[in-house]
Amino acid sequence: CSSRASKPWLSNGREIHSKELNALVSFHNVSFKGDVVTIRTRKVLSNRLLYRKQMVVEVLHPGRATVPKTDIRERIAKMYKTTPDVVVPFGFQSAIGGGKTKGFALIYDTLDYAKKFEPKYRLIRMGLATKVDRGGRKQRKERKNRQKKVRGIKKATVSAGKK
Fold first, then answer.
1. Is 7 a member of any domain?
2. In this structure, are 160 and 118 located in the same domain?
């Protein structure tokens, strides 16, 4: 009776040979301002439906604060020989005690595919899209209630009025 916990090389119920293991895990030692930071990518999958590679990213940063996502984007782009604008890191959480952060990264084939498949909020975070400012919740509610009191084309003048 063998469990996955005792055999970390088991993946999806099968053993991985050493060549496959090297393909699944890649290391990248990077020096940030004198401190050595190791970026490790694991479980790299090629998702042809969404034109991307997806992976788990581990960042080892002993004695240092969490590494910014912009730096992680640049380093992953260098590892996979692509540009930083098609790399989307997200979901990073630092381990208790610090020194280690885990998250996910997606590498799209082109920037167009990234814009097509990524959620708007991630594109806004990366600076690839602009946030639409809809005004405050109370202002929208008041405008809606003012519009209820009139009919027809007057609704437009009521909503555009009071500024």
1. no
2. no
What is the spatial distance between Cα 41 and Cα 29, in angstroms, rounded to a whole number?
12
Using CA atoms, how far apart are residues 115 and 52, in angstroms rounded to an integer?
A: 12
Domains contained in the chain, number: 2
153, pLDDT greater than 70: yes
Domain with 34 in it: 25-132
Are the C-beta atoms of 67 and 40 separated by less than 8 Å? no
Identify each DSSP E strand in 23-146 by its residue range.
26-32, 35-47, 52-60, 87-94, 100-108
Instruction: Kindly report, residue by residue over 64-113, the tens digit of the pLDDT.
Output: 888 888 988 999 999 899 999 999 999 999 988 888 999 999 999 999 99
Statement: the pTM of the whole predicted model exceeds 0.70: no
Question: In a 3-state reduction of DSSP, which class is residue 78?
Answer: helix
- The number of C-alpha atoms within 13 Å of 104 and in the hemisphere containing its C-beta is 8
| Residue 40 and residue 103 in one domain | yes
Query: Do the beta carbons of residue 71 and residue 92 sit within 8 Å?
Result: no
Q: Are residues 113 and 128 in the same domain?
A: yes
Same domain, 119 and 146: no
